[in-house]
Design a protein that fits this description.
The structure holds 2 protein chains of 2 kinds. Chain A is mainly alpha-helical. Helices cover 31% and strands 5% of the residues of chain A. The N and C termini of chain B lie far apart (64 Å). Classes of the chains: A mainly alpha, B alpha+beta. At the A-B interface, strand 2 of A face strand 10, helix 12 and helix 13 of B.
């Protein structure tokens, strides 16, 4: 479903002016789709591995590429913008030494069960208001499940 | 991090925070020592502290320095890092005055907050001719700061950071912090402050053998009164300034962990590709998005009046869909403008100004009589083109406007301006906008403009969800705020001994700095320098070294032409003109000597010299050029530079080298041209950069000529390179280049 909004008229453009008025909005706005809505007819690639568990872990590893901008998962690897995640599943929050956690996270008292990780990754700021994890939330619950499976497997290895 | 704040933290009746109030607020706030203390009265530390500290175990000693319980000293840097090494140089200045242990110094970029606006830049904007010595007093307060705040400046550019912020703020802050720590220790130990020494972040009392780290007295120091005029070191006592300390930002740029504006990640973020009207000032009359609507990943297609945006799940999808959109534009008065017409327009305006018209910039003596009486007359006209900035990281901005708030992520040279621009675009108060600055993948003046911030904010406001807008390289090249093209005409007179006696110059435009066309250091009896303003619809913007980039070429080419007309060597001729200025002469002589000036060169090789003081630093360059091949090959550049005092020799040398890479790119290839009002260049195939095999070997000599008056480092290395090269080409071939870039000419 495509929505088209047409706005009244083109007036003078205010470029970074002193005016408190907002800069002009769209003259025409075509909304093809809302974010999160299913894209039309694009086939999701199926996991090639027949073992559902390892397929999930592989999927999680692929999805972790986004997380890897801030986090390492290998044992003993350095903290990045975020802390090292080796052994995260089942551990108390704020436990990596040498990482400057937010007070909010440090004092959260949370243990990183799969369920807690799931809700945190879904929306970090909602789970722990004040957390410095401002990026990397995963809206897709299947993807979260895969990432958590991968984190767990990375510790076991 | 500001969660410990309570509503009881109210300012007094005057609207100013008192120091006692800050401390009290922290205690009242409870669980942790949130509090730092402002050195400056009225500094709203309650706002700064949560922005800068982790709340506990850290003391904000003043707006520029904090100390934590591990004895880590953090320098708060009110400038942005765009590869110029400013974090390191400014931290060196603070740490040296504080006697901090360099290995325990950390760096934090100041938030986009009014407290960190640059007073010195405001001064130059507001009152360049005002002679108020008090401003230069090393006190922490300053009335100009108020003006700066009013203007909302927190700007990195103009080669200002070290010479102004560093010299006046960072050093003073470090010295003040040190004195407050010493006072606190003296009070606790019951010994005279004069018997206490400091070194490597330790406080020592030789008589009693006592020694403690800074952190021990951080809280007590915060209670001490502000030293009205902290004692600054003299150069013989510097231990960190003047040292080639390793750059703080290099490791993360090598291992890839550095975060630039384009790396911003926001939950739920989508991507936008944009295309603005090709002729500035036109509007979009119609847009056919019928194909784009069906393309994968596309979420929204926006006609914003002056640009089209496609928002999609991924950047590539957005750009592909954008490419499929057919757009029609309104007629604009710029439509007919092309390159030749523009330079013809410059010529017409210069012709109309004649011998006496235009706006007078500077006049000394009687140029008309000087020229009339001259034994030899020299006349020449020079032209330079528009230039794009071509930052490695294309323009981009991520914005999220929702629930009366706006967050913006980008890399900008003036974060407070960016925040204000976003606020205006979103129609929200300044306070409701949070601006997140990251590293800049090249600035060169381009990132002092807020056009990308405004566009991203407008898109995000329309969508309601976070959007990262990235310009394609084509958009980045064609929608820049360009270094102005210009034409400059000279008439010069020489007396019978071949001495320059008159200098008459008229040129198009003057942007900044105002002294760029002037030559007060050259001893010539009469000067007259004028400008004419010529309208063009292209947007002008500052480009590395700003107007010195054009005028360095104009002036130093013409000086060389006068030398030739006088039958003199270019170096010897400049020596005569600088006879009364030993500091200038030393720089010129150093470069000439390094280059072996006057010694024999292989056939078809030439040396050229150029001398340009700019941004408070004096720079001379000698270029050695090989003209035996199909195009000029710049083999070696010798640089002598006197910025007063070099804070970080390694960083300063790198700035000279990079200015040569940037300036040589422009001299050899740089040219933005117009046809039918549109920029014709689009990407690196038609706007080439210097390749690594074309980079000359660069040798730099540094001179510390006046430690009290520092010059800049980012820009002064650029202006001499183009004329040094063209003067060398003249020496090798006898052909005088009066128009850049060199790729226009067949000279081999």
């Amino acid at each position: 479903m495509t929505t088209v909004r047409t706005f009244a008229c083109l007036t003078v453009f205010l470029l970074a002016g002193c005016s408190a008025d907002a800069a002009p909005g769209p003259v025409e706005q075509i909304i093809v789709r809302e974010p999160g809505a299913a894209p039309v007819a694009t086939a999701a690639s199926a996991a090639t591995n027949n073992d559902p568990a390892s397929a999930l872990i592989a999927e999680g590893k692929a999805a972790f590429a986004n997380c890897a901008a801030c986090h390492t998962v290998e044992k003993g690897a350095a903290n990045g913008v975020g802390p090292n995640l080796f052994g995260i599943v089942g551990r108390a929050a704020g436990a990596v030494t040498g990482f400057a956690y937010s007070d909010a996270l440090k004092s959260s008292g949370i243990t990183w069960t799969a369920a807690n990780l799931d809700s945190y990754i879904a929306d970090p700021a909602a789970k722990i208001p004040g957390t410095t994890m401002v990026a990397g939330a995963i809206a897709d619950s299947a993807k979260r499940e895969a990432v958590i499976a991968y984190l767990e497997s990375a510790t076991a290895n | 991090m500001s969660k410990n704040k309570t509503a009881t933290d109210k300012p007094g009746k005057t609207g100013k925070w008192t120091r006692r109030a800050f401390i009290g607020a922290g205690v009242v706030a409870g669980s942790a020592l949130v509090v730092g203390v402002a050195v400056r009265q009225g500094n709203p530390i309650d706002r700064l502290s949560p922005l800068l500290t982790n709340g506990e175990n850290e003391q904000l000693l003043n707006a520029w320095v904090k100390v934590d319980t591990d004895n880590i000293v953090t320098a708060v840097i009110p400038h942005v890092e765009m590869g110029q090494g400013v974090y390191t140089a400014l931290a060196q200045m603070l740490a040296d005055e504080m006697d901090a242990d360099w290995n325990k110094v950390r760096i934090l970029e100041a938030p986009a907050d009014m407290q960190y606006v640059s007073d010195s830049i405001a001064r130059d904007f507001l009152a360049p001719d005002l002679d108020v010595p008090a401003i230069f007093e090393p006190t922490v307060t300053g009335g100009i700061l108020e003006l700066a705040q009013a203007m909302g400046l927190q700007f990195t550019g103009g080669s200002y950071s070290v010479r102004a912020t560093g010299q006046r703020a960072m050093r003073t802050a470090g010295a003040a912090a040190r004195e407050m720590l010493v006072a606190a220790a003296a009070s606790e130990w019951q010994v005279p402050a004069g018997e206490i020494t400091t070194a490597d972040s330790m406080i020592l009392h030789a008589g009693s053998g006592k020694s403690e780290p800074f952190s021990k007295f951080a809280l007590a120091a915060a209670e001490q009164s502000l030293p009205a005029k902290p004692m600054l070191k003299s150069p013989e006592n510097y231990t960190i300034m003047g040292q080639p300390k390793a750059r703080h930002d290099i490791p993360e740029k090598v291992d890839g962990s550095a975060v630039f504006g384009i790396d911003a990640q926001v939950p739920g973020m989508k991507y936008a590709a944009v295309r603005a009207t090709p002729v500035v000032g036109a509007t979009i009359e119609s847009m056919d998005a019928s194909t784009a609507k069906t393309m994968p990943g596309v979420l929204q297609i926006l006609n914003m009046g002056d640009f089209v945006a496609v928002v999609a799940d991924g950047y590539w999808q957005a750009q592909q869909a954008l490419n499929s959109i057919d757009t029609k534009y309104s007629k604009s008065e710029g439509d007919s403008l092309d390159q030749d017409a523009l330079f013809a327009r410059y010529a017409t305006h210069l012709d109309e100004a004649g011998d006496d018209g235009g706006d007078m910039e500077t006049e000394t003596g009687d140029v008309g009589k000087g020229f009339a009486d001259a034994a030899t007359k020299v006349e020449a006209e020079y032209k330079v083109p528009f230039l794009a900035h071509a930052t490695m990281e294309p323009m981009n901005c991520t914005a999220w406007v929702r629930d009366g708030k706006c967050d913006v992520w980008s890399g900008h040279q003036a974060p407070v301006n960016a925040r204000q621009a976003a606020a205006d675009a979103a129609g929200l108060p300044f306070e409701d906008v949070t601006y997140h600055n990251a590293y800049l993948g090249g600035g060169f003046g381009r990132r002092s403009e807020s056009d990308a911030i405004i566009m991203a904010t407008r898109i995000a406001k329309a969508t309601g969800y976070p959007v990262k807008m990235i310009w394609s390289r084509e958009e980045d090249t064609a929608q820049d705020h360009y270094r102005p093209s210009a034409t400059s005409r000279f008439r010069g007179g020489l007396d019978k001994d071949g001495k320059a006696v008159s200098w008459d110059n008229i040129h198009t435009h003057l942007f900044d700095p105002k002294d760029a066309p002037t030559v007060p250091y050259y001893n010539i009896a009469s000067h007259k320098i004028r400008k004419v303003d010529v309208p063009t619809q292209l947007r002008f913007g500052p480009w590395r070294s700003v107007d010195h980039s054009q005028h360095g070429f104009f002036i130093e080419s013409f000086v060389d032409e006068m030398a030739h007309a006088a039958g003199k060597d270019g170096y010897a001729f400049r020596r005569e003109l600088l006879a009364g200025s030993p500091r200038h002469l030393k720089v010129l002589d150093t470069a000439a000597k390094m280059s072996g000036w006057g010694s024999a060169l292989p056939e078809k090789h030439g040396r050229g010299i150029a001398f340009v003081p700019s941004f408070g630093s004096i720079v001379a360059q000698v270029a050695e050029v090989d003209m035996s091949g199909a195009k000029p090959k710049v083999k070696k550049v010798y640089v002598a530079a006197d910025p007063g005092f070099v804070i970080n020799p390694d960083g300063f040398t790198a700035q000279m080298e990079s200015a040569i890479a940037y300036g040589l790119t422009a001299a050899l290839y740089g040219e933005i041209t117009l046809k039918d009002g549109k920029v014709q260049q689009s990407n690196f195939h038609d706007y080439p950069m210097l390749r690594i095999n074309e980079m000359p070997e660069v040798e730099v000599a540094l001179i510390n000529g006046d430690h009290k008056h520092l010059g800049g480092g980012g820009e002064p290395g650029l202006p001499p390179i183009a004329p040094a090269v063209t003067n060398a080409i003249f020496a090798a071939t006898g052909k005088r280049i009066r128009e850049l870039p060199l790729s226009k000419h067949s000279i081999a």
